[in-house]
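re: ur question from yesterday

yeah so i grabbed the chain u mentioned. its 127 aa long if i counted rite. heres the sequnce exactly as i have it in my notes:
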Amino acid sequence: MADYREAPLATRPKTLDPNEYFNLSPDYRRAEAERAALRAGLKREYQLQLNNPHRKELIEDPALNRWVYARANPYNHFKATKKTSLLGALFGVAPLFILYYVFKTDRDRREEQIKAGTLERKYKLSY
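ran it thru and got these structure tokens back, copy pasting raw so excuse formatting
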């Protein structure tokens, strides 16, 4: 843990923070153990239902239902932030301007070469 170096744009993970990792109270450890036991029980119940060879009905998993609903309706849960706005501009608007600049400068360069008579055309239409 001594050789861990923090990233400049990310926070230290909770599991690597010495104050959170080593100095935990017994009550906090007991609460974490209870939560882990609850998660393990729910996972075991789901696995038993999933692997039941005599099952005839669908298994209702509320977390999976919420995830599927959120994936099917992304715009209801979208929140515009600085990051999403920057990414939208970067991937939506910037390529248009870059392509316009590339095509325009190439066309202007070719037009200048045609006017000067220095453009070597690969496919000549007339001799």
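noticed a couple things. The first helix runs from residue 18 to 21. also The helical segments are 18-21, 26-50, 62-72, 82-116.
anyway ttyl
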